[in-house]
Amino acid sequence: MLKKLFQSFRSPLRKPQQHTRTTPEVLNSSQHSLQRSQFSRYAVNIVERLQNAGYQAYLVGGCVRDMMLNITPKDFDVATSATPEQVRAEFRNARIIGRRFKLVHIHFGREIIEVATFRANHPQDDEEEDSNQSSRNESGRILRDNVYGTLEEDAQRRDFTINALYYDPVSERVLDYANGVHDIRNRLIRLIGDPEQRYKEDPVRMLRAVRFAAKLDFGIEKHSAQPIRALAPMLRDIPSARLFEEVLKLFLSGYAAPTFEMLVDLELFEPLFPASSKALEYNPTYTHTLISNALINTDLRIKQNKPVTPAFLFAALLWPALPAKVLRRPGSGMPPIAAMQDAAHELIIEQCQRIAIPKRFTLPIREIWDMQERL
Q1: 75 catalytic residue (yes or no)
Q2: How far is 241 from 210, CA to CA, in rounded Å?
Q3: pTM (2 decimals)?
Q4: Is 159 known to be catalytic?
Q5: Annotation marks residue 183 as catalytic
Q6: Is the pLDDT confidence value at 142 over 60?
């Protein structure tokens, strides 16, 4: 799979082409396979109500992409020219959430439709930047993103071309600002804009590139893949609570095994799991086999609609790092089980500095390890 993903590296790198335009390619209903009946009726209703109120509104992103690939979407997102406050005024069942990215959640029983206002590019001049709306840190990572803009600007702010597709269920047209349909047909994950700059704005985009490539069985376009290894250490600056959520998306979506292979190949595994990465370096066969088998089993359970738990996932990902911790226990007279328990505590504390594993999972992780030691 990795050979397929990165075979394009054999050709010399050229400056990436611009993949957004101010005028979209418009696909009428006869030019695409989408039908409004395929989408959530609640999401379609939101689009219709916002348009009737005088706003622009579209179904956007992953739900459009997945429908084009005959995949049933898990979520349906709406993008609109209405501000969060204007959206809330139109829907009594709406709630504004978030600070870094202000969004609106509209509740229909158990179904939640996420509505986002069109966003614009961030000003590069600090003097022009309103810290209440937009802010970056010294490395260029976006800390706050509430700069609203036009539909065209919103398309430029999307991360990947395949996510910059806007479907209007009223006119049944698809607006393609970034050649996303072309990349879907060619099974490519391609960043919009300069890859290095976009990764610096949000290093988690590197993980998203891997997640989409594994989920969709796409390749990562060469210009989008090229900066990843050099920028991988930037993941260490991402809040550990956010990384926990991203790791669950990576490994509990049914494609954990190929995801692991890509993370290791692109040197993204180390900033997430430093101790296990060392084990992979010093004892590669055992570590790789154990983790791969555990992830293959996890993928199989998900495909069979069987329950999976983050505790087992983290127990498997971290288990290969335990032996080295045990061997470094101070004092030679410590009983083996006590030494393992002490090492387990240390390993979890260290890992939580990178990925904030909630306490409701850390105890089961240690119990799983303890059972292995007693078998």
Answers
A1: yes
A2: 20
A3: 0.84
A4: yes
A5: no
A6: no
